[in-house]
Amino acid sequence: MDLATATEAFADHLERVRRLSPATVKAYRSDLRDLEASSEGVLLEAVDLEVLRDWLWRATQRGDARSTLARRAATARSFFAWAHEQALISHDPSLRLVAPKKGRTLPTVASREAMSGLLDAHRAAAQDGDPLALRDHAILELLYGSGIRVSELCGLDIDDLDPERGTARVLGKGAKERVVPYGSPASDALSAYLRRGRPALVARSRTFTAAVVLGSRGARVGPRTVYELVARVLAPIVGAETVGPHALRHTAATHLLDGGADLRAVQEILGHASLGTTQIYTHVSTERLTATYKLAHPRA
Length: 300
Fold this sequence. Notes:
By secondary structure, the protein is mainly alpha-helical. It is about 60% helix and about 5% strand. It has 13 helices and three strands; from the N terminus they run H-H-H-H-H-H-H-E-E-E-H-H-H-H-H-H. Strand 1 (about 160) and strand 2 form a beta hairpin. The longest helix has 20 residues, at about 65-85. The mean pLDDT is about 85.
């Protein structure tokens, strides 16, 4: 079997059996297609450790980041373990494949004061009733108030909201469903948007959609639109050239921990499968505390 055929079979397994998100499946497929191009038509059974090492070496020569190399090594290990289980190959060539460890960097986080100013400004901009201004305010309040992922925001339907409880039902990674609270300011922003903004956007479309957040033409909003909004308004206040919706998720988690929230509660809100993933935010809180100490204490 050639690599291209095996890749598509593996992608189908990831989607149907492991129920991974389309974005994750796309990343796996992209890595394996890069391996296919690098190995120049080598059949699946002929791929050995040297072929895989050469693939990663070429990526290094291109200047790929260590995080990319680590991800591709992980992709190879998952793929060849599956191929071995399916008896497509007689041995797993990726067992001894080693990639550079990812450098751990702390996530970008905005301060409480910066977030307050940003959200106040968008609340004021939405007062004139412009549908997109109302929508953008609701997007920012909801991302920050709940800590949900951009894909979860874009996938929200009207029936997923519980205004009385101030909660939303979201579908996370691995098709895992959870209910998250989003707070009073987000509730107010959503209410204003649903009452005055969304109907105006719905009127611009010829087809019905149950989506909560709509684009300028009345269809379900796409991740790119949300990314562009957050990048435009958040980058200046965090001092970063590139920043996306995940920065609001990072900020929400950090502020929860700063406010005394239990780590496992934050894990549940964010939908992390592993507590270790959530623990990165304890490092952010500690770093901020240390920086404050050094600035304020006379014996620092």
